[in-house]
Amino acid sequence: MRSDLALHHNFGRLARDLKHINGPTAIPPRKINFAKAPFVCMILASSPRKIAAERSREEGFVMKVDKFKRQATLRVSTGGKLDVNFFLSYSTDEHSGRELILDILNSERSFIPLEDILKDEILMIGKNRFMDVELPDRDLLPETQKAREIRVQIELINGDLVEGTFFTDLPPDKLRLSDYLNFTPQFIYLCRDQNDVILNKDYILSLKHR
Question: According to the model, what pLDDT value does residue 100 have?
């Protein structure tokens, strides 16, 4: 009971902070609910219809960072699917150009804010529960698509088979599948003829050249 009260107190402070950042005409924060799904942590008191803002404290002031939305279909380890919007920045320190969904997934953050499109809510979801993320449009840098190709067939732990192409900048002597899996981050991007998919390597059972 004490921990619940502490959580509600902290979220109350968050709601007041959000109102302060967005100004006196900001849309009032919605009621906070706690999701029961095992892969969802909480629902934030924020309006998804406003441009997402990140708070970063530097030298005693609060800075707002504008973001844009990118749609995807998230499949989690429990087998459920969720149509969501990722919130991405117009620039990133990782590379030139805008931020990619792959950047978010391979960041150090354990929980990612996503917009549930159907319920019009903002969720914080633990990314270690992501099995894969299906994309309606390709979300790669142009230079990445000029790299070497590795065509593969992958079997996921639920029995699904997916085929596609990895792009890699690994040297020619490290183009074995074992090298690719060992030298890449946790989430890897698979290009397909329709609907590319980003895979969590923890949910890959096996893969082979195609």
Answer: 95
Domains of the chain: 2-134 (no CATH), 144-209 (2.30.30.100)
112-123 residue pLDDT tens: 999 999 999 999
- Token readout for 34 is 């706690």
Q: Which two tokens stand for residue 102?
A: 């792959």
Per-residue pLDDT tens over the stretch 40-76: 444 444 444 444 444 444 444 455 668 999 999 999 9
Regarding pTM above 0.85, the answer is no
